[in-house]
């Protein structure tokens, strides 16, 4: 029997007083004629609230609360600012009506306010309250922002990261930014544009635009620079490096006569790996020290080696190679031994999670994540990029005759798409962001 009440579980003991032997005889044996008490377990499910976190819009705010709510609602922390039992701006106000929040089925309440402070800045003060106990988790928090919409949105992402960390114990991924390529026009005479945006799809900026193709943008570990390949009409792809806060194309760092593709930054940001074909038209993996220009060939297998990516510790990298079979497979190269070994079956475009525990790659037209299986059928051969905490991925796909960008939670499978003006290609998520 299920009873919907605000309580979690309840056991009722129903005492039956036996008035006379005739009563017992009339109802027959209950298995133990000495029983004077019957226990009924009643499973009380409690309030079934689809939301876990209540975010009360902050006092004095028109930007921050909406951004935080949008961020958290796209994670496993199902969050809402609608139909709340109470409007409040401090934990003291919540504690006076704690039973209302418990009865409503929320696990956490976030309250706060924005205040003008000296220097023309805004202070964002907030608290995360655990509804079961009424305690303020990790105390009252304050973050400061310059008083303009762009900076307030960035600080809202910082606050979102902190709220996520307070509740889950894991770092958030909202301050990381996403770079991607957008293609417009006739495919035979297309314009490719490198853009960067916040992880919620807002604050889009153009970094570089060209006639031709842009391939494989990748972030430096500190989120300050982007490397990518550019192939202009009748030319071969070369790798550009530029600041993520500037525009115009940066500098060419691989002026080698061949294909220069698939850049990946080393964990310390001083070097890149890439696939180059300037030696005998044989695509191999090279390591380039950016400051000195020193170039070292690392692989020399049969066929083509492509799509290298450093592991987080920098001791190895993953890549694909056909090894003369014409079927790309996943390999790992050990930087200490100089040896490559197969780590899986057929696959392309591998990407390593920030903690090194997972690899996303493409098998046919399916996006696969090790340990999670097939994530989606994308219709294209591009892999995903992990979010900074590794709990979500971003990828492009081709469905319904158009390209789109999808962000999906690896914890819940929940996904949402971001609209773009053209065909979106190769989104990549930074580990950090510029303030």
From TrEMBL:
One of its GO biological process terms is: protein transport
Could you tell me which residue ranges the TolB N-terminal domain spans?
45-135
**Signal peptide span per the entry?**
1-24
The cross-references to SUPFAM superfamilies, in alphabetical order and at most eight, read: TolB, N-terminal domain, Tricorn protease N-terminal domain
Protein name from the UniProt record: Translocation protein TolB
A Gene Ontology term for the protein's cellular component: periplasmic space
Q: Please list every transmembrane segment annotated in the UniProt record, as residue ranges.
A: none
What UniProt keywords are attached to this protein's entry? Signal
- What family does the entry list? Belongs to the TolB family.
Q: Does the keyword Signal apply?
A: yes
């Amino acid at each position: 029997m299920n009873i919907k009440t605000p309580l979690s579980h309840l056991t009722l003991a129903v005492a039956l007083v036996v008035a006379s032997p005739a009563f017992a005889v009339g109802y027959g044996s209950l298995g133990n004629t000495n029983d004077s008490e019957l226990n009924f377990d009643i499973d009380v499910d409690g309030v079934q609230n689809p939301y876990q976190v209540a975010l009360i819009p902050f006092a004095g705010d028109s930007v921050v609360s909406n951004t935080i709510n949008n961020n958290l609602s796209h994670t496993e922390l199902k969050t809402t600012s609608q139909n709340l039992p109470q409007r409040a701006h401090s934990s003291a106000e919540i504690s006076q009506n704690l039973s209302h929040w418990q009865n409503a089925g929320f696990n956490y309440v976030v309250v706060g306010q924005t205040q003008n402070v000296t220097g023309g800045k805004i202070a964002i003060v907030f608290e995360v309250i655990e509804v079961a106990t009424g305690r303020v988790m990790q105390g009252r928090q304050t973050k400061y922002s310059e008083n303009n919409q762009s900076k307030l949105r960035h600080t809202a992402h910082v606050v979102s990261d902190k709220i996520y960390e307070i509740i889950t114990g894991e770092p958030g991924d909202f301050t990381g930014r996403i770079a991607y390529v957008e293609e417009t026009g006739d495919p035979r005479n297309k314009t490719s544009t490198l853009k960067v945006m916040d992880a919620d799809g807002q604050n889009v900026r153009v970094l570089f635009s060209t006639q031709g193709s842009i391939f494989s943008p990748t972030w430096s570990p500190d989120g300050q620079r982007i490397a990518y390949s550019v192939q202009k009409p009748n030319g071969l792809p070369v790798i550009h490096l530029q600041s993520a806060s500037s525009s115009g194309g940066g500098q060419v760092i691989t002026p080698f006569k061949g294909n220069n593709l698939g850049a990946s930054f080393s964990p310390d940001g001083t070097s890149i790996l890439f696939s180059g074909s300037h030696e005998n038209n044989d695509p191999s993996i090279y390591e380039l020290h950016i400051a000195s220009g020193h170039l070292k060939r690392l692989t020399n297998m049969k066929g083509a080696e492509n799509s290298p990516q450093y592991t987080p510790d920098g001791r190895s990298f993953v890549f694909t190679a056909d090894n003369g079979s014409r079927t790309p497979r996943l390999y790992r190269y050990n930087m200490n031994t100089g040896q490559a070994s197969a780590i899986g079956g057929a696959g392309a475009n591998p990407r390593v999670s920030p903690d090194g525990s997972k690899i996303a790659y493409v098998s046919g037209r399916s996006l696969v994540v090790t340990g999670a299986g097939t994530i989606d059928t994308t219709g294209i051969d591009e892999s995903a990029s992990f979010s900074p905490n590794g709990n979500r991925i971003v990828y492009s796909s081709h469905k319904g005759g158009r390209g789109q960008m999808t962000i999906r939670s690896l914890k819940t499978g929940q996904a949402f798409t971001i609209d773009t003006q053209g065909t979106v290609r190769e989104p990549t998520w930074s580990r950090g962001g510029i303030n």
